[in-house]
From TrEMBL:
This is Constitutive coactivator of peroxisome proliferator-activated receptor gamma. It comes from Eudyptula minor (Little blue penguin). The gene is FAM120B. Keywords: Activator, Differentiation, Nucleus, Receptor, Transcription, Transcription regulation. Functions as a transactivator of PPARG and ESR1. Functions in adipogenesis through PPARG activation. Transmembrane segments: none annotated.
Length: 668
């Protein structure tokens, strides 16, 4: 997660360490020097997503088709220069980083509350200075890049370590990202995504060697320098006394610099006078108030050592190369075949979160754009928890004595202080004969197994009785209906107007280009519509998890937001629906959509009615919440529900296959 203030310090105080480079020229030089190895840039995708997401609208749930087009253009620019990209995503939150993760999530909660306050006050999206990435953006970026043919890796430990190691081991021309830790690792050059001019392929390269020259240090000093400034291993709170001591003796103190800059210079000055030895490190550990853990500095320095590297601060016999430490025997899942396949699919970005559950029995979910003041809509973490409990049951099966292991959840929602994980009990979904075992779902073949995969998936969302109707739909529409029916069942405050808006989106989205969606202008933004957009997109990630657990009854591509959702389009339909517009206006005058609209709506209403949930009309007018009273059903949307279901988009593939047959082991 980087060293606070280091990136800005380099730009302000060490301008010689910031070199403008033409990546085409760098690639050409590499081709001359290494004719048998094409130039490769390894991309720290997690630090790039906020720079990639440039659509104008970001609060409404995501402009997914626009974003997909942006990623495609990004890839094409590098391909045109003959540069191959390899994308890395964080696959875990390591235990040593959990406190920092929690701190950031709680801070993000405050920022999101300010965003909603702005929307309610001004009825529009805030400026980019308040930007928050759309909910689940990193998750769907990973699948987007994979669908665009890119090598996409999901890590088994913190991504920056794996990125730095890959760059070094594969002789990459550089790392593209925005994380000051890449100034500390002794690896290939570090290029800035923030400074990248895509049309010219020009950016800034941050030079470790020039940084060291400016600070009077050597490359071997950098890991200790990072630790003594405070990083993910050594908390800043332990270093205040040490910094004060360094500031007193520093010859570089400059009143025109801020305190952090003077601390960086003072710490560098102190380290430059310390002999590079293990005894020096031990002396520092004794000097610092490290409490019971006197090995913090040792572990901090070691965290920057890539495979095959050594440090004068740590004797070779005390260096334990960082590798994925979780062994099969300590995993929650004890079946080697299942564990190995889940691990392979995790690394190759083919499944979603299930390896974390099978290995550590732990899962996390970051912030969503949810309004903590809206008491009528529970946090998405709570809405989808019953589905997750069924998914956990499918994955973990019952252990000895019929008991399931509990799953630790770190999910961000209003009212959760994140002081410890919530311990969640897996719950078996309701299926005749019980759920099939995981080996059957993952490895068996044949139409009966395909049917079991589908029925298990549907049972996770309480829709196992609706398989025949859903099978008649095209895959993305079927998945959309699963999610929307579940959502309407779980959240009693959702109204017919909300349902109309969601159904109108999937029908009107079909055939719309990224450019058409980009040109859509909203007169105002409704905060409840923003909240519902985020809840829906998080629901799509729950579909991904269920699909991964049940042996992929759907192709993952069919569960992506650009297939079924657009934030601005939903915001428009939401406002139209609540303002009581005509069906003609809601469906943009396209009469061919009237019957599909009624059929999809009818399916969802019937699925809810079967669970004793009646969806009421409750128009909110011009975006203001108008109280809790039930309203008359808007007659302009009222048509008699058909007794027989006529699919709006007929699935041309019969039988129990939403996904195309794929080679064994490649379920994506």
């Amino acid at each position: 997660m980087g060293i606070k203030g280091l990136q800005g310090f380099v730009a302000r105080v060490c301008p010689d360490a910031c070199k403008t480079v033409d990546l085409r020229e760098v690639a050409e030089k590499h081709r001359i020097d290494h004719p048998d190895f094409p130039p490769v840039i390894v991309v720290d995708a997690m630090s790039c997503v906020r720079y990639w997401y440039t659509p104008e609208s970001w609060v409404c749930g995501g402009q997914w088709r626009e974003y997909l087009a942006i990623l495609e253009d990004f890839i094409k620019a590098f391909m045109a220069a003959g540069i191959k990209l390899v994308f890395y995503f964080d696959g875990v939150v390591e235990e040593k980083k959990r406190d920092e993760w929690i701190k950031r999530r709680l801070q993000n909660n405050k920022e999101i509350a300010r965003i909603f306050q702005f929307i309610k006050t001004h009825r529009k999206q805030p400026g980019r200075e308040m930007f928050a990435v759309p909910s689940a953006l990193p998750t769907f970026t990973r699948f987007a890049l994979k669908s665009l043919g890119q090598k996409t890796v999901c890590t088994l430990q913190e991504a920056d370590f794996e990125v730095a190691a890959y760059g070094l081991q594969h002789n990459c021309i550089g790392i593209l990202g925005q994380d000051s830790d890449y100034l500390i690792y002794n690896t290939c050059p570090y290029f800035s995504i923030e400074k990248l001019s895509l049309d010219r392929l020009v950016t800034v390269m941050y030079s470790r060697e020039d940084l060291c020259r400016a600070l009077g240090l050597s490359l071997t000093h950098l890991p200790l320098f990072a630790c003594l400034l405070g990083n993910d291993v050594v908390p800043e709170s332990l270093l205040e006394g040490f910094w004060r001591k360094c500031l007193v003796t520093s010859p570089h103190k400059n009143n025109s610099y801020n305190r952090r800059t003077n601390i960086l210079l003072a710490v560098a000055n102190y380290i430059s006078k310390v002999p590079c030895s293990y005894s020096s490190l031990k002396h520092l550990e004794e000097m610092l108030p490290l409490g019971s853990d006197k090995t913090l500095l040792h572990r901090g320095v070691e965290s920057y050592l890539l495979p095959g590297q050594q440090s004068p601060w740590i004797p070779p016999n005390l260096t334990s190369c960082q590798t994925f430490s979780l062994q099969q025997q300590t995993a929650v899942c004890q079946d080697k075949e299942i564990f190995q396949l889940a691990k392979e699919q995790h690394i190759q970005s083919e499944n979603y979160t299930i390896f974390n559950i099978l290995s550590k029995g732990e899962i996390e979910c970051s912030n969503s754009l949810e309004d903590e003041c809206d008491a009528e809509i529970p946090g998405q973490a709570l809405i989808y928890r019953p589905a997750r409990q069924h998914i956990y049951s499918v994955l973990l099966e019952s252990g000895k004595g019929g008991a399931y292991p509990l799953v630790k959840e770190w999910f961000v929602y209003f009212g959760n202080p994140l002081q410890q994980p919530e311990l969640i009990q897996p719950v078996q979904p309701s299926m005749p004969g019980g759920t099939p075992n995981l080996k059957t779902l993952w490895f068996a073949k044949g139409p009966d197994v395909e049917k079991q995969r589908c029925s298990t998936f549907l049972a996770c969302f309480h829709l196992q009785d609706r398989m025949e109707e859903l099978q008649a739909l095209e895959a993305p529409v079927a998945a959309f209906c699963c999610l929307l029916a579940y959502l309407m069942m779980q959240v009693s405050s959702l109204s017919l107007e909300d349902l109309n808006a969601f159904v109108a989106v999937i029908l009107c989205l079909k055939g719309k280009s990224a450019a058409q969606l980009a040109s859509l202008q909203l007169a105002q933004v409704d905060s409840r519509g923003v909240h519902l957009g985020a809840v829906f997109v998080r629901g799509l990630t729950t579909l991904l998890m269920a699909n991964s657990a049940c042996g992929f009854p759907f192709r993952m591509d069919d569960l992506m937001p650009w297939e079924v959702f657009d934030g601005k389009l939903f915001q428009e339909k939401y406002q139209q629906s609540h303002q009581g517009c005509s069906l003609e206006e809601l469906l943009e005058g396209n009469e061919s959509l009237y019957t599909p609209f009624q059929n999809l709506k009818s399916f969802i209403c019937k699925a809810c009615a079967a669970k004793k949930r009646t969806i009421q009309s409750r128009p909110r007018g011009n975006g203001f919440i108008t109280g809790t009273q039930q309203r008359e059903f808007n007659p302009r949307f009222q048509q008699t529900h058909r007794s027989s279901f006529v699919p709006p988009y007929h699935n041309r593939m019969r039988g129990f296959l939403w996904r195309n047959p794929q080679p064994q082991g490649k379920k994506y």
